[in-house]
Amino acid sequence: MTNRYIFLYASAMVILVALVLSGAATLLRPYQERNMRIEKMQNILSTINIEAPRGEAELLFERYITTTKVVNHLGEEIEGDAFEVELQIENRKDLSERMLPVFIAEKEGQTYFILPVRGNGLWGPIWGYLSLESDISTIYGANFDHASETPGLGAEIGDRQFQEQFPGKKIFDQDGTFRPVRVVKGGVPPGDLHAVDGITGGTITSNGVTNMLQNGLGAYEKYFQKIKTS
Amino acid sequence: MEPKEALFSARNKKLLTTPLGKENPINVQVLGICSVLAITVQLKPSLVMAISVVAVMGFANVIISLLRNTIPPRIRIIVQLTVIASLVILVDQVLRAFVYDVSRQLSVFVGLIITNCIVMGRLEAFAMKSKVWPSLLDGIGNAVGYAWVLLAVAFFRELLGSGTLFGYQVVPQFLYDIGYVNNGLMILPPMALITVGIIIWVQRSRDKSLIDVS
Question: Residue A65 in contact with residue A131, Cβ under 8 Å?
């Protein structure tokens, strides 16, 4: 077989494969996107301790998440659909242009503010959701996930054990200064309401979570102050 | 012209059945072990993985067999890999669209079907020189040989490690009440290796011809 034949064969094969795969990806995209939406709803609901099965996530989301809005860094409400805001894109923008989504939930007569955060771990992006109680300081629940952290080390941020440290912690100190939760090495001193235990062998991911909370929640500071005073 | 061979002649049936036992890709050839260790904690992901491998191997063997007279020998490995990789990506996309939870659990391992030696081994050893129908049987036979071991390992690991099967509780509560505990060790990857080892042991003690005398 000549080289010419080999080149033609390889080219034809590659083009054919590209067509088939891109066709399949386009056809299946709507289904995949729906799955991702549902997963996002499940994650948001889990911060207020509601375990939503896949089939009911949309229904439960509708029931518990009463208001969604988008604010800017000054805390003013701006136009936009909170659920559709992509933090991946927003985080690249200047703080003054960022769209900041807020999900407000009502559960058993209590109001919770749920905020998304996103940052960088060791190998790739990490993200999560935090719910705050109506004092806008106490964390009610937290949920983190990651794209490609090391299993057994950094990937532990996706585990319940790590996330269960967050409820009860505070993001403002007694004087009302913004002091988000840090992930610290070597154990949290007893009574420290602004830190959780880090992950052994997952220091860079742990620091990633600290930065993510600092930057992510920091962007909402003016908004927090605004609802506190109103 | 040769007389036409029956679809399920003795020879064709053997293609389907020998990989289940005597030439099992896992127990005898010890290929594809990596995914057996990783995803057999529960039956459900194992079943999805098993079905995915059956689909990939069946189609890959048929496609390569159809192309076998046109493939330039110098790039045959690349052609085989392209076919496998495309099929695996298709499977991954379909799983993501229709069984999202399972696809998250299997995560990287669906992609790793590409590097599962069983698939390429059968393409190179069989489909490159066989007609379409026997190739299909060979592919499915080997994939099912892989699948049953996968499911057997997952069965014992889920039963003993979590007390459930397909997520349903099967170990009755009163056993826990009188002090039975799930064996946490079964959930860890090394126990998959040991379970496979036991399956190999049982198989070899029943079929002495498998014992390596050298």
Answer: no
